[in-house]
Amino acid sequence: MDARFVATALATAFTIIDPIGMIPMTVAATARFSPDRRKQIIDQAVIVAAVVMLFMGVVGRLILEYLGITLPAFMIAGGILLFLIAIDMLFARPTRAKSTQAEEQEAVANENPAVFPLAVPMIAGPGTIATVLLLVNLSHRDRLDLLVVLLAYTVALAVTWLCMRGSALLQRVIGTTGINVTTRLLGIILAALAVQFVLNGLGQTPLLRR
To answer: pTM of the full predicted structure?
Structure first.
């Protein structure tokens, strides 16, 4: 087992999903519901997000091959997308890559925010799907590495579920400043991972290897 791949999978899963960053959105989206209903919404959101990520992890490679998209090209594109998300995280502002202001306003009026916006795009957004596809492709279909990716996102989703379940309490304890500081730290890690993905993609580009 490659220890670097394990570290990359874990770091990528936690930084892109950002469990701490899910706290404010969870509070806003579920504020008007009863405690029992709030728990059901959170459970549904995590399950739907897990299904979306698993589906893309299974069929994503086939989609890329069908479209003729090479791994280096996808690594570069994914790295750029992740870097844009990291910039928003560094400035502790809602990333437009996850949801727009119009979508957030629609979420407030939504009767069941579990699927939208909590599951998609807040948990399983474009950035998350991109990292899942990147890691699956980097595993080169090695079963052990694929298991590492599965476990990394399972752990990240479990932590996200815990943060969402205790969102109201955690927001009172940590406060807005604490959430922003944590998000900035994760943003720094994500920015470094994004740059590394781009560099790896450029290094695997045939024209640049000559």
So the answer is: 0.83
